[in-house]
Amino acid sequence: MKLVTAVIKPFKLDDVREALSEIGVQGITVSEVKGFGRQKGHTELYRGAEYVVDFLPKVKLEIAIDDALTDKVIEAVSKAANTGKIGDGKIFVTNLEQVIRIRTGETGPDAV
Q1: Could you read off the pLDDT of 42-77 as tens digits, one per residue?
Q2: pTM strictly above 0.90
Q3: How many domains does the chain contain in total?
Q4: Three-state SS string across the chain, please?
């Protein structure tokens, strides 16, 4: 099993969710986060005062999946979140040692 973590632009969330639904992904965890990479923030003007926005708003998705879906999930997220501009985000894939569904006690791929 794998945990796919993607950090994307907030306005791309619906596109990514739809793309994941189309390939059969049933569960997803979404968090609002802030961060920066090469984008390094930007300067904004508010009530005549200029200030630096160091951390940009992003959305973090966590998707626990069976190994067989890994490539499909990566491709779906990559295509749906892509704008072609800096700050599109990152995808991280890590191994999941164990998954347990609390309600039923199911483990492994059955719990996902």
Answers
A1: 666 677 777 677 788 899 999 999 999 999 999 999
A2: no
A3: 1
A4: CEEEEEEECHHHHHHHHHHHHHCCCCCCEEEEEEECCCCCCEEEEECCEEEEECCEEEEEEEEEECHHHHHHHHHHHHHHHCCCCCCCEEEEEEECCCCECCCCCCEHHHHC
Instruction: Identify the residue whose tokens are 């295509």.
Output: 79
Domain ranges, residue 95:
2-111
Compute how many other C-beta atoms are within 10 angstroms of the C-beta atom of residue 34.
12
Q: For residue 106, give the CATH number of its domain.
A: 3.30.70.120
